[in-house]
């Protein structure tokens, strides 16, 4: 596998793996990103980020709420939405608009626009950061006199493991 490809920020999960390492790696990067931008990763924000990193699948805000509500009495919806807003503003999570769900960012300290590959069968998401592609979009937009405010590219398809696996899991309803 080509690990020198810097345009891939987050791969599809490779079958069974030590996901605890993914989570601890993400938490360490989150601490660094917050320290670098002078923001505070409070216990609640940290826990919300952990829940988003619960798997490699996008997570909806109400799923975070459901788990958090069992853990702490004061996990009111606005608290969770504010925590998700914070995590987005630091670049620790991205919102996938087409799914109305969140995924953890693989490289929060690297400035990039969101480019996502979304598997329509298992729901897994990979993240790309191709600066050339982002620039082309901006240049074409400029030619139309369009000022880009937020650039997110979402591409739907089927991931390698779903294409090769004999067992096809249906999409979630
Ligand atoms: Zn993992
Ligand atoms: Zn990212
Ligand atoms: Zn898949």
> Please, how many domains?
1
Per CATH, the architecture is: Orthogonal Bundle
Report, as a whole number of angstroms, the end-to-end distance: 33 Å
CATH superfamily: Winged helix-like DNA-binding domain superfamily/Winged helix DNA-binding domain
Q: For the report, how would you describe the main beta sheet? A: 4 strands, mixed
Helical proportion, percent range: 40-55%
Q: What does it look like?
A:
The structure is a single chain. The longest helix is centred in the first third of the chain and has 18 residues, at about 20-35. The chain starts with 7 loop residues before the first strand and ends in a 9-residue tail after the last helix. It has one domain (about 10-165): Winged helix-like DNA-binding domain superfamily/Winged helix DNA-binding domain (Arc Repressor Mutant, subunit A, Orthogonal Bundle), CATH 1.10.10. The mean pLDDT is about 85. It has helices spanning about 20-35, 45-50, 60-70, 75-90, 130-145, 160-165; strands at about 10, 95, 100-105, 115-120, 125-130, 150-155. A 4-stranded mixed sheet has the order 1-5-4-6, with no helix packed on it. A two-stranded antiparallel ribbon has the order 2-3. A hairpin with a 5-residue loop joins β4 (about 115-120) and β5 (about 125-130). α2 (about 45-50) crosses α4 (about 75-90) and α3 crosses α4. The protein is about 40% helix and about 15% strand. It has about 170 residues and is of the alpha+beta class. It is globular. One zinc ion (ZN) binds near residues 158, 159 and 161.
